[in-house]
Design brief:
397 residues, 7-stranded mixed sheet, alpha/beta, elongated, 2 domains, binds S-adenosylmethionine
Length: 397
């Protein structure tokens, strides 16, 4: 059995190597694992260096079986925190530096600190990722915390679709913003409805923050799931993203005030309608929505006689429900003073459906005619309820 003095000594050596790596900027990352302590759900801790407005610090991501938690520590404080955590039940510590790797193993009878060749030669993004002209930096810390990129800024192989989607989203946002009257506005209020894990919310914040002369942005993610809200807020705080926050609640209940840009990607079924309604009623200049499922219309749809031979096939019924739902949404936006474009976006693991509706506010033209057309379509397919149409109707009554 090892004495506690011997254990302390080995931990101290490990911590000393951590201090040195932080002092000479050779630190890449640190992982604590094989947890045998008393905290029920704790499994691992991943430690990465990040840049905040206050300077460099270490972000600790606590991996629990139930959820993740993030906390930031200054470089001077972090080594003693790692020491506390090792003493509190982590049996394994792996420190990666660009000079050497250090593997600390604490057993009941043995304790060793293995020193090996470095896995990483640089703490920065690998050149092949830098060569590509991405709009967002794959090395940015929130992408690492959200698990899109590795500690050295490489796109994780199972996250490539998400990465492409984030970049495509930023490309669309950029084009909409550049061509809008918001360009001259010094402050922007942006709301992301159904923000989920916050990938796109962070990306929107990052996009505006890294512009040459950034507007002061307030970005709010609305999400029903409290665990996702907590984690996103922790990551936002860890990054010093003062203008970014996540709020737990439903889209329908959220009171956004005056909104400049409203985002709603893959919010489920009629949650997209709730979001579009909020966009219209808060006079958003730009609305970006990628609807998810189209259950509401599909379950009411009646095939007109002439299409019965086509719509008897479930796949055709499904596609027609999607076309009708998103087409009606786009026409309702037009009737309420928006110009719209409906095009194909990138599908994700959430949904193979990939329509995107973008709407920019302009002068309302021909609202009555558009509404008459919508009524004709609804009568043809027996669509009694369409949630956005119902919400807009209630507002008029
Ligand atoms: C498929 S995820 C998409 C997340 C994110 N927008 C994206 O595209 O990566 C949809 C998220 O919307 C949330 N959501 C669905 N309906 C909602 C509602 N009515 N109010 C708030 N959040 C909602 C879900 O909890 C889920 O996290």
């Amino acid at each position: 059995m090892l004495t506690s003095f011997a254990v302390e000594q080995q931990i101290e050596r490990f911590i000393n190597e951590l201090r040195i790596s932080l002092a000479d900027s050779t630190f890449v990352k640190l992982t604590l694992s094989n947890y045998k302590g008393s905290e029920e759900h704790l499994q691992k801790i991943f430690v990465r260096q990040i840049e905040t407005k206050k300077g460099p610090s270490l972000m600790f991501q606590f991996r629990r079986s139930t959820n993740d938690k993030v906390q930031n520590f200054e470089l001077s404080e972090a080594p003693s925190r790692v020491k506390e955590m090792l003493s509190a039940g982590f049996r394994s510590g792996h420190l990666f530096t660009t000079k050497q790797d250090f593997q600390l193993t604490i057993g009941n009878r043995s304790m060793k600190l293995d020193v090996g060749k470095p896995t990483f030669r640089t703490a920065e993004t690998k050149p092949h990722d830098r060569e590509k002209k991405y709009r967002i930096d794959p090395n940015t810390f929130y992408l690492k915390a959200l698990g899109i990129t590795t500690d050295t800024g490489e796109i994780r192989s199972d996250q490539r679709d998400k990465w492409k989607q984030i970049n495509k989203f930023v490309e669309i946002l950029d084009s909409l913003y550049e061509n809008s009257d918001l360009k001259n506005k010094p402050t922007l209020n942006i709301v992301d409805m159904g923000s989920g894990k916050g990938y796109l919310t962070f990306a929107a914040y990052d996009y505006f923050g890294t512009r040459t002369s950034p507007p002061a942005v307030s970005v709010t993610g609305i999400e029903t799931r409290g665990d996702l809200v907590d984690l996103s807020n922790q990551i936002a705080r860890a990054g010093g993203f003062d203008g970014l926050k996540f709020v737990q609640g439903s889209i329908a209940d959220f009171k956004p005030g005056e909104v400049d840009i409203l985002i709603a990607l893959h919010a489920c079924d009629t949650a997209t309608d709730d979001a579009l309604y909020k966009g219209i009623t808060s006079h958003a200049s730009i609305i970006v929505a990628a609807p998810c499922c189209h259950k509401e219309v599909k379950k009411q749809m009646r095939s007109p006689e002439i299409l019965s031979g086509i719509l008897k096939h479930p796949v055709m019924l499904e596609r027609t429900a999607e076309t009708l739902t998103d087409g009606i949404r786009s026409m309702l936006l037009e009737a309420n003073g928006y110009k719209t474009k409906l095009f194909e976006f990138i599908s994700t693991e959430h949904t193979p459906k990939n329509n995107m509706i973008v709407a920019t506010r302009s002068a309302a033209k021909g609202a009555d005619q558009i509404e008459t057309r919508i009524d004709e379509i609804r009568n043809t397919f027996g669509i009694e309820h369409q949630h956005l149409a119902d919400l807009l109707k209630q507002r008029e009554d």
